Structures are given as structure tokens and as C-alpha cells.
Amino acid sequence: MTTGPNKFLDDFARLMTDMAGTAQGMRREVETAFQAQAEKFLQGMDLVKREEFDAVHDMAVKAREENEALKARLEEVEKKLSAKAG
């Protein structure tokens, strides 16, 4: 049986080890809870994913280019019709 300063140091070391383990467990619980709350918050914000945004952006760019090409063709047709009418 250990007595005196050695027992005190052993008990103190055991206590510190237990506290470190408890602190790690608490940290994991807090991180898990925070992550769950953050995910819930972001889902409630009705955000789109980056891939979806990029896909819609690419579609809009393509549609804009097609509109410009059609506008140019329409202007050509209108010029030809006005030249024939005049």
C-alpha cells in the first residue's frame, strides 16, 4: 500500500488522466451537437448546392448566347423583307 507523497501523486495523476478523458468526450459531444445544429440551420436557409448553381448558370449563359444569335438572324430577315418591300 502506497502512502505519503507518492500516493498523492498517483491519485493526482489518475485524476488528471480521468479529467482529460472526460474533456475529450465532452468536446466530441459538443462538436457533434454543433455540427447537427449547423446542418439544420443551413437546410432551413433553402440554399442551393454549388453544382446546381453552376449548372443553372451554364444554362443561362447558353440561353443568352442563343438569344443573341436569334436576334441577329431576325434582324437579317427583317432587313431582307424591308428591302423587298421598298
Question: What oligomeric state do these chains adopt?
Answer: single chain
The biggest beta sheet is recorded as: none
| Whole-number total of structural domains | 2
Question: What sequence of helices (H) and strands (E) makes up the elements?
Answer: HH
Number of helices: 2
Overall average pLDDT: 91
Describe the structure.
This protein has 86 residues and is mostly helical. The protein is built from two helices and no strands. The protein has two domains: 1-46; 48-86. The model has no long low-confidence stretch (mean pLDDT 91). InterPro entries: UbiK.
Keyphrases for this structure?
single chain; mainly alpha; 2 domains; 0% strand
Task: Give a topology summary.
Layout: H1 5-44, H2 50-85
InterPro entries: UbiK (IPR007475)
Protein name: Accessory factor UbiK family protein
Pfam family, one: BMFP
